[in-house]
Amino acid sequence: MNWDHIVVAFYFSLMFLYYSFLILLYFKILGDVEYKYLYNLNNFIQLFIAVFLLFRYHPFKTKYELSRSDINLIFASACFLIVNLGILHYFSDWVWKQYSHIKDISSNSIA
Q: Would you say 48 and 17 are in contact if contact means Cβ atoms under 8 Å apart?
C-alpha cells in the first residue's frame, strides 16, 4: 500500500465520520453539545484538504502526475467544499432559529 492509498483512505474515513455526525445531529440523536465536535472536525478536514493539495501540487514541482486516487481525492474534496458551504449556511440558520425560539420562550415565561 503506497502513500496515496493511505491518504485517500484517511480522507474518506474522515468524511464518513463527518457525515455520520451531521446526520445524527440533524435527526437529534445526538444532543446540541456535540455540535462543537462537528465544527472542529469540519475545520480539521478543511485544513487536511488544504495542506494535502498544497503539498501535492505546489508550483515548484517540475513534473505533475495524476493517479486515480488523486482524481478521486480532488473530486471528493471539491464536493465536500461545495456541500459544506450549503450545509454550514443551513445549519447556522437552524441553530440561530432554535436559539431565538428558546430566547423568546424564556423571555415570555419570565414576564
A: no
Q: What is the pLDDT of residues 46-57, one digit of tens each?
A: 888 888 888 887
Q: What's the one-letter identity of residue 30?
A: L
In the chain, what are the domain boundaries?
Answer: 3-110
Task: Please provide the distance, in angstroms rounded to a whole number, between the alpha carbons at the two ends of the chain.
Answer: 66
Q: pLDDT of 45-93, one tens digit each?
A: 888 888 888 888 777 888 878 888 778 888 888 888 887 777 776 776 7
Q: Are 42 and 88 in contact (CB under 8 A)?
A: yes
CB count in 10 Å sphere of residue 49: 19
Model confidence, pTM: 0.61
C-alpha cell at 23: 446526520
> What are the Cα distances from residue 8, in Å, to 14, 43, 44, 52?
10, 18, 15, 10
**DSSP labels, 98-110:** HHHHHHHHHHHHH
